[in-house]
Amino acid sequence: MAQKEKKRYLSRLKNKYRFSIYNDQTFEEVWFLRLSRLNVMAVFGGFSFLLVSLVIVLIAFTPLREFIPGYPDTHTRRQIVQNALKVDSLERKLDYWQQYLTTLQAIVNGENPPALEAKLDTTIRTKQIVFTKSVEDSVLRTQIENNEQYNLSVNTSPTDNTVKGFHFFPPVRGEVTSSFNLTHSHFGTDIASAPNEVVVAVLEGTVTMATWTLETGYVIQIQHNGNLLSVYKHNSKLLKKAGSHVKAGEAIAIVGNSGELTTGPHLHFELWFNGTPVDAEKYIVF
C-alpha cells in the first residue's frame, strides 16, 4: 500500500496543468503555460536559492552588513585596530622598563646586568681559547698607539679656578651635529665621527662610572682635578672600568650607537664644572 501511495503521489507531481489567459470579450486564448507541480516546486526552489545567495553575497562583500544590528561599522573596526596597536606599544614599553629596573637593581647590588650575563658563554674553558690578532684589532692597536704618542703628562689643574685654566684633549675628532643648549635640556655636545673611532679622555683623572643604561647605552664618566667631570655616552664598547686611572688622550671607549636616545653613530660628550654643565665647544676644538 505504501509503495502504491508513493507512486500515486509522484504521478500527481508529474501531472501537467494548463495555465491560460483569455480575452474577456472574445474568449480568445492569448497566452498559456503548461506546468506541473514538480516544475513549480523546482522554479520556486531555484528562485529561493538564488535570492538567499544574493542576500548572503551582499551582506558579506558590501557595506550593507554595517546595517545589521550588532555588527561593527568602519569607525569601530578602525578604533579596534588602533587600540590593539596601542596595547602592543604599551606592552613593549612596560617590557623595556622592566628590563631597565632589573638592570638597575643588578647594578645597585653590584651584580652584572641580566642582558650582559646572557651574552657570557660559561661553557668555554680557558685552555680552549686561542688568541689571534685580526685585521681590525691590529688597526685599533695602531690607532691607539698613534693617539697615545701625544698624551698630555703636564699638570692639568687650573690656575684661576675656571674652566679656562685646563688644557683639554679632544675626546674624538668629527663634526658637531648638536651643540650645547640649556633651554632644551641638552647638556652636552654631539660629535659624529668615523665608525669605530677611538674615544679618549680629555684630561687625566679617575673613571668613576663605566656602565650601560637603557637611554644612553654604554657610558663612561671620569672625575678630574679641580671639580671637573667629563661624561662620554652612546659608546659601542668601553675600554676602561670604574676605578681605573687614565691620562689625557688615553683611549677609554669606542664610538657607537647604543641606547634608545641615539639617532646614529656619534659621541655625546658632557663637561661639568663645580656641578654645573658647561659648553665644551668654548674650550675644545672637535
UniProtKB/TrEMBL annotation:
Keyword terms, alphabetized: Membrane, Signal, Transmembrane, Transmembrane helix
Pfam families with a match to the protein in the record: Peptidase_M23
TM region(s), chain numbering: 40-61
Entry keyword annotation includes Transmembrane: yes
Domain M23ase beta-sheet core intervals: 185-279
InterPro entries in the record: Cell_wall_metabolism_enzyme, Dup_hybrid_motif, M23ase_b-sheet_dom
Gene Ontology molecular function terms on file: metalloendopeptidase activity
Protein's name according to its UniProt entry: Peptidase family M23
Species annotation: Williamwhitmania taraxaci
Phylogenetic lineage: Bacteria, Pseudomonadati, Bacteroidota, Bacteroidia, Bacteroidales
